[in-house]
Structure of Phosphomethylpyrimidine synthase:
Amino acid sequence: MHAADLAKGHPGAQAWDDALSDARFEFRWEDQFDLSLDPGTARSFHDETLPAAPAKTAHFCSMCGPKFCSMKISHDVRRFAEERGLTDAEALEAGMREKSEEFSREGGRVYLPVESL
């Protein structure tokens, strides 16, 4: 339904979509729930995996978790770039170089023993 409203250029559909995207990127969970098509169901789904109150302010979601959340990684890259005076592209290159060096230093193993995580 919402995708069709966007495609048809329905007044307000793009603003609503943008507001929801901004809330998602900024980890404003309550705003995400309120902007969803069905706020009650959105809260319910979220609470199935992250029921505690602090999860409503967490900077990651239950789908990816704190280590693999694409939104969190985007924030981390921007902070990394700002701290080093780099562009986002330069920060990505420097970060990948650092991770590559770390990977080599740690033995180049894809799968690590559980105790080392």
Observations:
- Helices lie at 2-7, 13-25, 29-35, 39-49, 65-68, 70-84, 88-105.
- The radius of gyration is 19 Å.
